[in-house]
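For practice. Any example?
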Amino acid sequence: MRIVLRRAIVLFVPPPVAGRIDEIRRRWDPVMTARIGAHITLVHDVVDHGRARDLVAAAARSAPFTVRLTHADRWGRSSNGIYLHVDDPTGSIAALQAQLAELEQPAWSRVAFRAHATLVHGRTVTSEDAAAAWAALDGFRAEWDVDIGAIDVIELAEPRWRSVERIELQAAPVPD
């Protein structure tokens, strides 16, 4: 029997902003911090691993871009997760998500997606710790610019996520 590992597609946040995010994550969610670096998720659960490479390669024909991490928020209750909003002024994240949408597991594709960088994950902290984190982070404004230059296909090999493929963003050449 062949084991199929869970895969996702993310935009890793580079230094120095990743370090700032991880300071918060280490304080409030050390388990998830140890599992994966600071990132913005494009596809939560890839349904077609074989097709993912081709679609990610096609999507990577985009120029690198900059987004801004803004204010802390939560998914309803604190125990559902706490995150930073992502301001996507050029629509680059939305465009990448649209190009990769067919790879998304159907349960996630029915959920309205809001680009975000998770600070506290609902599955790796207690409700009490999540409430304490929200008490500290409510009203927090990061206002950090993040330069995005690559797309990563990652795989969960317990206990950590690992990158199985990294494709640098590169604008397609303009025909003469």
User: Anything to note?
Assistant: The beta strands are 7-12, 39-43, 65-74, 81-87, 116-121, 141-148, 150-157, 160-168.
